[in-house]
Amino acid sequence: MYSTAFLDLPPLQAAAGEVHLPGSKSISNRVLLLAALSNGTTTVHDLLASDDTRVMLDALRQIGCTVDKAGSTVRITGLGGRLPQSPAKLFLGNAGTAMRPLTAALALLGGEFELSGVPRMHERPIGDLIDALRQLGCQIDYLGNDGYPPLKIAHGQGVPALALAAPIRVRGDVSSQFLTALLMALPLAAGTQAIVIEVVGELISKPYIAITLQLLARFGIVVEHQNWQRFTIAAGSRYQSPGSIHVEADASSASYFIALGAIATSATGQKDTKSGIKIQGVGLDSIQGDIRFVEAARAMGAVITGGPNWLQIERGAWPLKAIDLDCNHIPDAAMTLAVMALYAEGTTTLTNIASWRVKETDRIAAMATELRKLGATVEEGADYIRVTPPAQSADWKAASIHTYDDHRVAMCFSLAAFNPARLPVRIEDPKCVAKTFPDYFEALFSVAQVETSHIPVICIDGPTASGKGTVAAAVAQRLGYRFLDSGAMYRITALAALRAGFAIDADHEARIATLAQTLPVRFEGGKVWLGSDDVTEAIRTEEAGMNASRVSALPAVRTALVDLQHSFQRLPGLVADGRDMGTVIFPEAPLKVYLTASAACRAERRYKQLISKGFSASIEDLRADLEARDARDSSRSVAPLKPAQDALVLDNSDLTIEQAVEKVLAWWQERQPFAASAQR
């Protein structure tokens, strides 16, 4: 997952391949709560790993459920009629699928609880649900503004006698989560009499209620309804674990890759040419309402086929066709249609989306603001949005997309990187996707394709002990880019050759070169990995350095390592450090930095480094060694150490690492078309 302040997406051209989606958020949190309320132990398979499910699991542990988690499988032993542990303070982040149902369930279970979340959660209405619970006789107080969390449930002496004779009335035109919360909680009170819920006003997002009803049935609760306005829970209802249950992949998350298949051309000119996008984990028979996004995408021109657990998407009509659609049945996925509208001919109108206003952010306002940044003409109303794309390629604009701590805004607008103007797109706060799809950008990059020359590279070259490796690694981490420590490549090659039983000499040059071509090297978490082995320390010994020098003297190996280093130029970008990154390996890099420092300064740094590791050293000897090495490196016949002609020289003798990093980042920002709006 990207935890950077922003993530720059270069212009993307094509997409093809297969994506495995995470579990549905809507199903995951419903299943977790139903398991917690049931008698017995429920094994939940393929659970979504996200911020929303994490806060739900934490809350269930606090109220006394036994939770055993192993990867995407969770075993929950429910309360089964026991009272929850209380008092307890539950923090529920920005998870409406946790806040609303837990409030209702705890109000009927008894105990003292405080439920709170992030500031945005305290702006999301819950008053209609509280009004319904108070009708029953539940004691719930607002700890802040009336109608909004945080809340206090105060049933210290047990739940009072509930008023169940008359139907419980709840509004349905603000959020379907209010009705879902009551449907999941009220079976707890259905002893000797049936319980009736009446919906006031039009029920929005009916497909989400359908999910709730299907899952309730899996846990032994049958609910009848009359035209989605009157719901009846049978007397004697009692939760019983189904034993095990599988969570479908998230249909809302599928919308981004359905859209991707509709707007991106398929990859061509490659050995294993793939066609379109295949989505694994959710199919045309999904119980989730957002699967009907398929119908909308088809209406815009996508060619979609599928089976029980998969979808295949191909680009069809181009440009896409503008649509006028009532989106009440796909409220979350409809946001993706607003971005698809950028690639349509004509004006797309999405209506009946008032619920967008009370989601993680005011999504109508957010989508309108960010679409305009890209060059679209947008009209918004209380419950609609109308999008007209830029008239031609020249009218598109490079934009820094503000994401409002809303996962769906971030994922939707990543699709703008396929714009015909070939402009980059900046996604601010990319980590917000952790709410439902922590690895979204990794999944996108696994199928998105672009000419390698268009993937940005920052080269940081310099002499020994100039700090280039430390600075480069920090810059890569700040940008979310890949990192290449070129100096380590020769050491790793030597280590791999010795492990394979090859002597490092001319007789084994061809074999070592072949080995070097496919070395499984990666730089992650401040460590160097060769396959699954952490070789960070193994390649830092004096012997490893001497072996690296011997390897570098073999021309075929040097050639192979050039190709291997080129292979690190992958999405979303690369920061490469070494001695010839800007002059030999990546001569077309848009930013080249030559990092240097005086020999005296570098000797002092190396001295402190050695002393901290318990080695004895002499500053004078280290300085003499560095000066001799500088002379050798700058005069060698192959790739001599020198700044590239267009490199920016940065003397960091008097700079901290952080100051050097900030300078490099500032130079990089100056080269971006959206630098002025990068930070807020």
From TrEMBL:
Residues 15-444 form the Enolpyruvate transferase domain. Gene3D superfamilies: Enolpyruvate transferase domain, P-loop containing nucleotide triphosphate hydrolases. It catalyses: CMP + ATP = CDP + ADP; dCMP + ATP = dCDP + ADP; 3-phosphoshikimate + phosphoenolpyruvate = 5-O-(1-carboxyvinyl)-3-phosphoshikimate + phosphate. It is an enzyme of class 2 (transferase). It comes from the Bacteria. Pathway: Metabolic intermediate biosynthesis; chorismate biosynthesis; chorismate from D-erythrose 4-phosphate and phosphoenolpyruvate: step 6/7. GO terms for biological process: amino acid biosynthetic process; aromatic amino acid family biosynthetic process; chorismate biosynthetic process; pyrimidine nucleotide metabolic process. 3-phosphoshikimate binds at K25, S26, R30, S175, S176, Q177, S205, D332, K359. Pfam families: Cytidylate_kin, EPSP_synthase. The active site is at D332 (proton acceptor). Its EC number is 2.5.1.19, 2.7.4.25. Catalyzes the transfer of the enolpyruvyl moiety of phosphoenolpyruvate (PEP) to the 5-hydroxyl of shikimate-3-phosphate (S3P) to produce enolpyruvyl shikimate-3-phosphate and inorganic phosphate. Monomer. This is Multifunctional fusion protein. It comes from Acidovorax delafieldii. The gene is cmk.
